[in-house]
Amino acid sequence: MWRRTPLALGSKFHNGIKNVYSLRPAVDRHPRKAPHPTSGTCYNMCRAMSFEAAKVVVEPASCLHDEAVSLSVDGLEPGQDITLEASMPDSREVVIFSYSHYKADDNGRVDVNTMESLGGSYKGLFPMGPIASLSPMLQKHKHRRFFKEDVKKPNLVTLAAFKGHLNYDELLNGNRREPLSTTSHMRHYMAPGVQQIPVRHGNLRGCLFLPPGDGPFPGVIDLYGSTGGLVEHRSAQLASRGIASFALAYFGYDDLPKTLEEINISYFEEAVEFLLEHEKIVKPNVGVLGLSKGGELGLSLATFIPEVTAAVSINGCISNSMVKLNLHSRAIPGLKYDIEKVELKNGIGDWSEVWNNPMDYPETIIPIEKANANFLFLVSCDDKNWKSEMYADIAVKHLEKAGRQNYQVHKYPEAGHLIEPPFSPFNWAIYHRVLRGNIFVGGTLRPHVEAQAHAWEATLRFFRKHLQNSGVQKGKL
Question: Which residue of 299, 324, 335, 371 shows the fewest CB atoms closer than 10 Å?
Answer without folding.
Answer: 324
